[in-house]
Specification:
peptide transmembrane transporter activity, disordered N terminus, 25% strand, SBP_5, 4-stranded antiparallel β-sheet, alpha+beta, 21 strands, signal, SBP_5_dom, 26% helix, Dipeptide-binding Protein, domain 3
């Protein structure tokens, strides 16, 4: 049975966009005396895919839903790795991991779980070449000695295997290559998908064959309501039961509503602006540093993000394993102009910045404020707000100049962000640095956790000092629940889960 504290994910602050709320039938979603019923969830970022093995393998909206459907071999419980679908594991040698799978698990269709399903899932994640594939770059062989034993052999020691496995969702081997399966997928988890309309809605129903504690909810209904005012209205009108990522100025009024409960908490998430270091003028670190010095982040944060987060001290939030504080970039327009002149742009330049609709709390206002400050030093930035699917496609193709987004180190381990995103082979932001690669690969291979932490601190300093991106804010999360929603417990991994929730 999965640990409740492990499964209940925290929520990164996500965006403010521009549609109106959809309507919910409140009569059909009332809880019953035993807590059963439909939990009505308004997610502020659209769920565009339920396939966790390809382009959306690290997409938070996708993972928020699929974690209710699929399970992983291991989980992180109170900071420690614990068994889940795998009962135990060993290291016969530094290059080999062997996992003993439970023999009492079935998928929602009654098919028994076997090692073939685990192998197919890991292979699909690697073959999908999505954002998580790089975590498994050193895998040489995936073996299935018997139906309940899985072996993973790597070309070099991989100290992050267990951490990585917390994001490997196990799907049926017979279905995993069928794209149509992910229109209504099922796994071994407490819920299964009954309907899915990309970008709009997802309906989950209880998996009565689930081996663990049965969810108290009969169904979970996700609806995309991008506009803040729409979600607030839906809450106050009893059209939804839960939403998150509301801007701070909305929370004050909601705290005074007796029908609502507001929870705020720290997360593993942060706000960042990346530069495409493979495109002029961002090939020059002086230009990237100038972009940072040119913006008055302290003033902007005070006006837009009060109680929504804290000023970042590095490229990772402080609570993450391997994070380390770095020297801040002060607001200094004169320094920015000096750096631009040294880089050959005394009169500035024209560029663009993209972001996805719904990516970030107060995203449009934040972009406007930065663009205004950049203009003061001669940098003209064209704003490009894109639908999420379009933004993600351009992001992965490196078809952009700069981009604004939020992200979460979901595993709580620095490798998930630093190695996954900043290795030269990742090709995520156009930045290449052999010295950084060497440190990150050494950290990934290191089995001594103290040494790993030291190496990630060194890597974080390079990313920060080279201004691969701007890292202004570590995010706090917030969730607003209607009275009668019981059992929700946030944790910092940015994946809100509702399997433990009941309604009264």
């Amino acid at each position: 049975m999965r640990s409740l504290t492990t499964r209940l994910g925290a929520l990164a602050l996500v965006g403010v966009l521009g549609l109106t709320a959809c309507s919910f039938d409140s009569d059909s979603t009332t809880g019953t005396g035993d807590g059963a019923g439909t939990l009505r969830v308004a997610n502020p970022t659209p769920v565009v895919s339920l396939n966790p093995f390809a382009a959306n393998s690290a997409d938070q909206p996708t993972l928020t839903v699929v974690q209710e459907v699929f399970e992983t071999l291991v989980v992180r419980d109170n900071g420690e790795i614990a068994p889940n679908l795998a009962e135990s594991w060993t290291n016969p040698d530094p290059l080999t991991w062997q996992f003993a799978l439970r023999d009492d698990v079935t998928f929602a269709d009654g098919t028994p779980l076997t090692s073939a399903d685990a192998k197919a899932s890991l292979q699909a994640l690697i073959d999908g070449k999505g954002p998580l594939a790089g975590l498994w770059a050193t895998v040489e062989e995936i073996g299935t000695p018997d139906e309940h034993t899985l072996t993973i052999r790597t070309s070099s020691a991989l100290g992050t295997v267990l951490s990585n496995l917390t994001l490997l969702w196990i799907a049926p081997a017979a279905k995993i290559t069928d794209s149509a399966f992910f229109d209504a997928p099922y796994g071994t988890g407490p819920f299964k998908v009954s309907s899915f309309t990309a970008g709009q809605s997802v309906e989950l129903v209880r998996n009565d064959a689930y081996r663990g504690d049965q969810p108290k909810l009969a169904t979970i209904s996700y609806r995309y309501i991008p506009e803040v005012s729409g979600r607030v209205t839906a809450l106050t009108n009893n059209e939804i039961d839960v939403t998150w990522g509301l801007p701070p100025d909305q929370l004050t009024g909601l705290r005074g509503n007796d029908a609502l409960t507001v929870q705020s908490f720290p997360t593993y998430a942060n706000y960042y602006i990346w530069f495409n270091s493979s495109r002029e003028p961002f090939t020059d670190a002086r230009v990237r540093r100038a972009m940072w010095h040119a913006v008055d982040f302290a003033t902007i944060s005070g006006s837009l993000f009060d109680q929504a987060g804290t000023p970042a001290t590095g490229p990772l939030p402080e609570a993450i394993f391997g994070a380390a504080a770095q020297n801040p970039y002060p607001y200094d327009p004169a320094k920015a102009k000096q750096l631009l002149t040294e880089a050959g742009y005394p009169n500035g330049f024209t560029t663009s910045m993209m972001w996805s609709t719904g990516c970030c709390t107060n995203g449009n206002s934040f972009a406007d404020a930065m663009i205004s400050d950049w203009a003061k030093v001669g940098i003209v930035v064209k704003p490009e707000e894109l639908e999420r699917a379009t933004w993600l496609d351009k992001l992965l193709k490196l078809d952009w100049n700069s981009t604004m987004t939020t992200g979460s180190t979901i595993t709580g381990d620095a490798d998930f962000t630093l190695a996954r995103l900043y290795l030269s082979t990742a090709k995520r932001n156009g930045y290449t640095n052999p010295a950084l690669d060497e440190i990150l690969l050494a950290a990934r291979a290191e089995l001594d956790q103290d040494k790993r932490a030291d190496l990630y601190a060194q890597a974080g300093k390079i990313v920060w000092d080279d201004a691969v991106g701007i890292f202004p804010l570590d995010l706090s999360g917030n969730v607003v629940l209607r009275t009668g929603v019981n059992g929700f417990t946030p944790t910092p991994n940015d994946l809100p889960s509702f399997a433990g929730v009941s309604l009264s």
